[in-house]
Amino acid sequence: NTAQMRQSQDAATSAALKYLDLSPDKVKVTLKLADVGGPSAGLLFTLGIIDKLDGDGHGGDLTGGRTVAGTGTIDEAGNVGAVGGVGLKTQAARRDGATVFLVPRAECADARGDLPKGLRLVPVTTLKSAVDSLRALETGKGPVPAC
After folding, report:
1. What DSSP line would sit under the chain, residue for residue?
2. Residue ranges, the chain, pLDDT below 50
């Protein structure tokens, strides 16, 4: 679990820096986490890094003020992979106030199974699709996919 977590953080950092076209020689990223294990937070790690480092006029707020949750592994190329326990994760996310949940597209059926009322599922396959969907939600411009 610890090794998977470290690998997830490394992949998240690489994917975020590639997405932002930043050199790892010029930017140092340190993640400080508590009570998180395994690789399933990779997508959210990546989005958090982008949110902190992005200087392209989006105000550093990919969430648009919403409480956004999600799950998914990430590789260095920015591909989002499936994880386990999606149904339980959506329940916990809604309990904690989330209104949007990013889910690997391949797990839409599992996520819809016990979907709590008031939680919008947004399927993603890549880091770019996740960022594009979040920005579309924030601005109201462009399509936002649904499961």
Report:
1. -HHHHHHHHHHHHHHHHHHTT--TTT-------SS--SSTTHHHHHHHHHHHH--SSSTT-TTTTS-EEE--EE-TT-BEE--S-HHHHHHHHHHTT-SEEEEEGGGHHHHHHTPPTT-EEEEESBHHHHHHHHHHHHHS-S-----
2. 57-59
